[in-house]
Amino acid sequence: MAAQLTKGQRDEIKKQALDDFSRYVNPQKARVLKNAGLDIIEGKREGAAVWDITGKKYIDCITSAGSFNVGRRNPEIIDALKKALDEYDLGVFLLCSKPKADLAKRLAEITPGDLQYVMYGSGGGEANDFAIKLARGYTMKNDVISTLKAYHGHTGFSLAAIGRDEYRKPFGSMVPGYKHVPYNNLAAMEEAVTEDTAAIIIELVQGEGGIHLATDDYVKGLRKLCDDHEVLLIFDEIQTGFGRTGKMFCCDYSGVVPDILTIAKSLGGALYPISATVYREELGDFVMTHAFTHLSTFGGSDIGCMVGLAVIDFIVKNKLPEHAAKMGERFQKGFDELLTRYPELLMEVRRKGLMMGLQYTNDSIGPRMSYQLAQNGVMAIYTGNEPSVMRLMPSLVIQEDEVDFVVDALDKSMSEIMKQGGIEKY
Ligand SMILES: Cc1ncc(COP(=O)(O)O)c(C=O)c1O
Q1: How is domain 75-317 classified at the CATH fold level?
Q2: Which of 91, 254, 276, 282 is at 20 to 30 A from 348, Cα to Cα?
Q3: Taking the mean position of all CA atoms in its chain, how far away is CA 207?
Q4: What is the pTM of this model?
Q5: Is 27 within 8 Å of 19 (Cβ atoms)?
Q6: Could you read off the pLDDT of 34-74 as tens digits, one per residue?
């Protein structure tokens, strides 16, 4: 539709949308986005790119933190959604259905080890809520251990697991029984485990926390710790799942199988919300005897399941995990050069596949780089729990020339910041 409009009309739609957003949704958010050069009204979306309604093209490196692994408006997923709409609706959530059964079977096939049963939801926080409820219910123990700077969602049980005070404090008492320990520190986790620990919940790469990678030894150590103390191990692969890190799931690197795996975001192909909590067979004992462990009207809808099936087919058929690993290496070559050229700005790069974090030398560089990158045609933003880290998570369908474009934009943006006086200016 926007393509048929004149430039003046498109400018006017943008202005009105920004004004109304500011007036009726959140003026502070609108201001922050403007300052970061991200006062964009998304128009056309395709592959790894998005166009502002006024016509400017960007490579999307935000992707709602890894929700667009199959690309923006992927035609094959749109096709699957249209076919689903011809035949299905949400479905009655209390009933069994073929799409629910088909997707659960497929998830059991692609998830590691003996993970078998699926509880559906509609978002990541909900998937983690159920994981924690299941762990508490099954073990009949109370405590949950998560890590500092962790992000697990803004719903009740998940919010309590977030490892950042600012997210929890405004809401008063949280669900009790949570401890937060330093990440990648097995000794701290060992010390925190007690007879009343039901579960450890962990991201294998902390996303909001600033792209911190769990070491294989840490992950293996967690598995042993859990086995020794009858604690359930929950992997939150809501950002890392579906090929993002160069394997279908990040836990495929260490070979460690959790008791419970949570997935969301890209499962919905960025077109339809759906999430899932996948768990080992014996944990089913609790669910079978507690019929109302979790109910979710929109969770695992028939349409969502059809989309999920198409997403998995697309990822497997196009070998997206392998492609992500390859494109990640191409990025890395560019990052290595930037590290030598701009040591005043860029301190370190942490990366697994296309889950990439640029550690700047100073908190102020995050927003300034967002602004410069937007001018240079790249949408990117610093992480919520660590503003000195810029997270780059493009769609996994990104191509070589687009990778080079992003690296070039980073180069130009850093050069511009240096010309403006580098970090001295702030
Ligand atoms: C690791 C992780 N867990 C959970 C969530 C929550 O997912 P949702 O926003 O769908 O509730 C997110 C969202 O960013 C996430 O990154």
Answers
A1: Aspartate Aminotransferase; domain 2 (3.40.640)
A2: 254
A3: 7
A4: 0.96
A5: no
A6: 999 999 999 999 999 999 999 999 999 999 999 999 999 99
